[in-house]
Amino acid sequence: MTAYIVRRLVQVVVTIFFALTFLFLLYFALPGDAATLLAGGDGRVPDPVTVRQVQDRYGLDDPLPTQLASYWQRLVQGDLGQSYQSGRDVTSLLLEAAPRSIRLSIWAIMIEVVVGISVGLISAVRRSSLIDRLSTAVTAMASAVPVFVLAFVLQYLFAVIPEDQGWADFFRFETSGRGDDTWLLFFIPTGNTWRYLVLPAVTLASVSAALAARTARGSMLEVLGADFMRTAKAKGLRDREVLAKHGLRNAMLPVVALIGLDFGTSIGAAVLTETAFSWGGLGFYIAESVRRRDLPVLLGFTTVVVLAYCLINLLVDICYAWFDPRVRLRAGTAK
Amino acid sequence: MRGKRRLATMMALFLAFALIAAGCGSDDSGTGSDSSSAATNGDGGSDESTPTTDAASDTVGGGGTLTLGAEQEPDCMDWINTCAGSSWGSWMVNYQVMPRAFDFAKEGDAWVYEPSVLLAGEPEVTSNPQVVTYKLNPDAVWDDKTPITCKDFIYTWEQVAKGEDVYDPSGYVDIASVEATDDTTCKVTFSKPYAGWKSLFGGLYGVQPAHLLEGKDRNAEMKDGYKFSGGPFKLESWEKGTAITLVPNENYWGPKAKPDKVIFKLIPDTAAAFQAFKAGEVLAIYPQPQIDAIEQINAGLDDVTSVISADTGNLEALWMNNGKAPFDSVAVRQAFGYALDRDAIVKRLFGGIGVEAAVNSLNPPILSALADNAAWSGYKLDLAKVDELMTGDGWAKGADGIWAKGGQRASIEFKTTAGNKRRELTQQIVQEQAKAAGFELTINNQKAGDLFGQQLPAGDFQLALYAQVLTNLEPANCGLFCSKNIPTDANGNTGQNWTRTNIPALDPLLEEVDATVDDAARAKANKEADKIQAENMVSLPLDPLPNIGLVSKKIKGDVEENPITSVFGNLYQWSLN
User: Fold this and answer.
1) Has the ipTM of the complex gone over 0.85?
2) Can you list the domains of chain A with their CATH numbers?
3) How far apart, in whole angstroms, are the C-alpha atoms of residue B192 and residue B161?
C-alpha cells in the first residue's frame, strides 16, 4: 500500500508540472496582455512609457522560456508570487478564497450524496415505477442543462419572481455575494448566510447529483440481480435488511469513486457557479484572473485546484482499495 | 456494529444541528434585520415602503443603506499609482472621499469645470509665466478636522511629479513650484503654459492629506484602503472580492451625505448583475454598453430609472493610417467616409438604448463646447461620391467590384481588439457596407497588448477600430494628431500620433489648444482643427460608447449621469423612498 501511495504521489507531482506548464503557455495565447491592462489599458489607450515600465518590472517582455523558468524557480521555493493587478500575495488571496470554495463544495457534495444517492436507490428499488421514470427524466435533464443556465433559471425562480411578486423575505434567495458570511464549525451558515448559499450549492450540486443518482441506480440494479442477494433473501432476511446490509455497501463502490471525482469536477464547475453568483471563491478568482490577465493569480489558484483534485482522487483510490481488497491486491502485485 | 450505530447517530445529530443552525439564521433574517438587503431603512428596519424624509443638506444620514452593483473591483486605492487605473475605483471611492479643486458640471449642453466646495471661488490665473492662485475654502477640513491647506497641494504635486509608478503625471510635471502664500492660498507656478490646469488637484488623484502621509510610504498607507476623507463619504471597509462600504463623513463641510451606508457589491458578470438588479439585491448598476447589456435593457426592466447618455468622454472611431496605402491618399480616405452609413451602424449597435447618431467630431462628446460637432456631418453614405473620388484618384473597379489602381486592389486590413463582441459586430457591418462601395476589408484582430503596444505605434495597420477615453475635460488632440507626435526615433517612438496625421495647417492650431488658457481662443482653435481634420478625413469618428446607468425607483434623489464621475457622482444625494 505504501508503494502504491508513493507511486500515486509521484503521479500527482508530474500531473501538476504538466498542468501548470500547459496553463502557463496557454496564457500567452489569450487575447490581451497583462502589461497593457496594468498600465491602465482596460478601456483606454495606455501610455506606452508606462507599458514598458510594467513590462520591465514584471519581466513580461522576457522570452517565454525565461519567464517559465523564473516561475518554476519561485514556485519550488513556495513563492506563488504577487498579483499583477493588486500587488497582493497570491498566498493571502488563496487563504481568503479557498475556504469559501471548500464550504460551497461541502454543501454541494452533501446535496449530491443525500439527494443523488437517495433518488438513485429509490429509483432502482422501484424500477419501472412512475418515480423511477420521473427521476430518470429529471436526472437526464439536470445532466444536460449547462451550469450557468441552471444558475440563471434558479435565480429567476427564487429571487427575481419573489421580488416581482413581493413575496415575504423567507421565500427569497439571494443571487450574488455571500451575505454576512458567518459560519459555525467552518461550514454551517449562520445569520442570513444560508440565503446566499442555497442557490449556488444547488447549482453546483446539480450535475453531480444527477450523475450520482444515475450511477447509484445502475449500480443498485446490478447488485439487486446478484446471486448473493438471492442467497440473502433465501436465508430469510427481510427485504430492508438485504438492501441495507448487502445491497447498499456493494452498490456504493462506484458511487464513492464518482463522488471523489466530483469534488474535483465541482471545483471546475465552480468557475461558472461562483461567477454567476459572485461567490468570491477559487473559481471566481480564476475567472477574474483570466479576464484580467493576472498570471500569478491564475497559476497560483490553478496549482491549488490541481493539487486538491489529485490528492482527493488519491484519497478516493485509497478508500476504494479499502472497500475492495482486490484493488489493494493488484497494487501489492505491482510492488 | 454498535460503533457504526453510534457513528450514524452522531452524524444524524450533527446534520440536525447544522439544519437547526441554518434555521436560526432564517429567523434572524425574517425579522427584517437582513443587512444584506439592498433596500434597508436607516433605523435598521427593512420596510421598503417606509419613506425617509428628504434630509436637508446639513443633515448626515437618514437615507438608509443603499446596496449598489459594481462590475469591477479596484486593484488598489493608491490613486496616484498605476495599480489604481480602474475607473470603478474612482467612481466608488476616489470621487466620494477625496477632495478636489474642480467638479465636472453641465452648463447648457456642455460639460465644464466648476470650482468645488474645496475652493473659495474661481482661481486667479496669470500668464507668462502661468501662475494659478487657488484660494481654499477655510471651512475645508479632513475628517479628523485638520484643515485642508496648501501643504496638501504641495504634497500631492510632489508625489505625482516626482514619484514612481505614477499613473499619469501629465500637467504636474509642468509645474515649477507650489507655494503657500498663507494657509488657504496656494500659488502654483508652471514652467510652461498648461491649458489643462483645471484637471490638476482633482480628477484622478484628488488632493492628498500631507499631515497623514508625509514621510510615509503612501502606497503602503493607501493601496488596501484608507480611513481618511475629505469628501462626503469615508471608506468603512473593503472586503476584497466582495464589497466596498462607505459611510458618511460627518465632518464634511460641503453637502452632507444622505445615505447611512452605501455598499458596493462586486458582481463582475453582467448577466449576474442584471439578475441581482432585477431581484432587488442591488439598487443600481452601471454596465458597459456591450451587446448583452443592451439586450437585457431591451427585454424590459420595471420600476427603473434608466440614465443612458451619449454625452460621454469616449470616442470610438475607425482610425486610418494616413501614412500607408491606400489611406495615404486623401481622396481614398474621403471616399471611405462616403462608403459608410455611420448612423445606421450606430443605430444597429446602440439603437436599442436610443443612441442612433454617429459622432461628427474627433473630440469625445463631453468636449462639445470645444469642438466643431458637425465637422464630419457631411460624410454620409453616397456611393456616387465614392465613385467620383475614387475615379478622380485614378482607381477603377475590377471585375470583382473592388477598386484597383496600378495593380493594387483596395483591400484593407481591419484590426481591433480580439474578443470584444460589440467591436466584432461593428466590423462585420462596416465590412459589408464597405464591400458594397468597392472596398474589401479583411478582418485581422489582435491581442490588445499587441495592437496598442506594438502595431499601432509602429504603423503596422491600415484601419483600426478602438476608443479614446478621457478622464477629464481636456482635449488631447495634439498628442494624437500633431506631426511632431508621429512615433519616430526623434521622440523615442513614444509619440501617440498613430494615424500618422501630418497636416502642416493643423499643428499650430492643436499646439495652441494645449498652450492657451483663454477658453474662447482654445475653443476657436480646436473647432478650426476639427474642420481641417474632417476635410482631410484623417480618421472616421463613429460612436460615443454610451454610458448606461440603471437605478431602481426605490432610490430618491437626483439620478443623473456624469461622464467623468459616473451615475454615482451624486451618490451623496441618494436615499431610499
Assistant:
1) no
2) 2-30+80-333 (1.10.3720.10)
3) 14
